[in-house]
Amino acid sequence: MNPQALQAYRNFLKDYIRQTIDFRNTHQSQGVPPPPLQNPCPQGAQRIALPRGEGWPSVRQTDLVEAINGRRSHRRFQQRKISLEELSFLLWATQGIVDLLDSGTAFRTVPSAGCRHALESYLCAVHVDGLAEGVYRYLPLEHELCCVRRTDHLKRELVEGTLGQAFVGTAPVTFVWAAVPYRMEWRYDLAAHKVIAMDVGHVCQNLYLACSAIGAGTCAVAAYHQELMDQLVGVDGKDEFVLYLAPVGKIERE
């Protein structure tokens, strides 16, 4: 290992960057309006309304201590579909809006540095009841899905995009989180990138815990081919790029 390079990357985990920033020059301090809470759904794209809470009939009551103690990474899934209601619950649990403060700020079910929430949630849906096979994006403001594209080769694309991890292709649905860095840079400048990495960890942990309420399991995946995964979900790889993913499927209860 290169000692100088190693120390440089270690410093990324420390708070040195913040000490070099003049926060009077951030776009927020300069009065630039905040970026939107979510990317727009392209005109003409199919939108799918998701079932709202109202008790979540298919979601079982789960003891929090039990869910934390039973948290495991699962790579073997049953050949059972995820229902649209179950998917709706998982999306709400990971990026749902609890309170809309204004056009640029909202409280969600997960914490985020400065309430900036710099992530977009994409779904690679293979076996979801009521959804054609394809890639979708979650619209938290409306609690809807926006169809990105349909494909009959999603399993193969997922395995190729995750460097041959075959188990990813067996999941009924895979959550893919992409970062939109400017949402965080608007407030934190160069210090944004450390906290974006923290934020995506909060989101994935909520997915782990929420899965226990629907008899499902997941496994966080951080090893992937950047360009292939960016292409798979349709992001430009510059102003928005894939950061993390997690396949979800039903598991045998222990």
Describe this structure in words.
The protein is an alpha+beta fold. The chain has one domain: NADH Oxidase (3-Layer(aba) Sandwich), CATH 3.40.109.10. The protein is built from eight helices and nine strands. The chain has helices at 3-13, 16-19, 64-69, 84-95, 154-161, 182-188, 192-211, 226-233; strands at residues 47-49, 97-102, 105-108, 119-125, 134-139, 144-150, 173-179, 216-218, 241-250. The strands form two sheets. A seven-stranded antiparallel sheet has the order 1-6-5-4-7-9-8. Strands 2-3 form a two-stranded antiparallel ribbon. It starts with a helix and ends with a strand.
Layout of SSEs?
Blueprint: H1 3-13, H2 16-19, E1 47-49, H3 64-69, H4 84-95, E2 97-102, E3 105-108, E4 119-125, E5 134-139, E6 144-150, H5 154-161, E7 173-179, H6 182-188, H7 192-211, E8 216-218, H8 226-233, E9 241-250
Antiparallel strand pairs: 1-6, 2-3, 4-5, 4-7, 5-6, 7-9, 8-9
Helix pairs in contact: 4-7, 5-8, 6-7
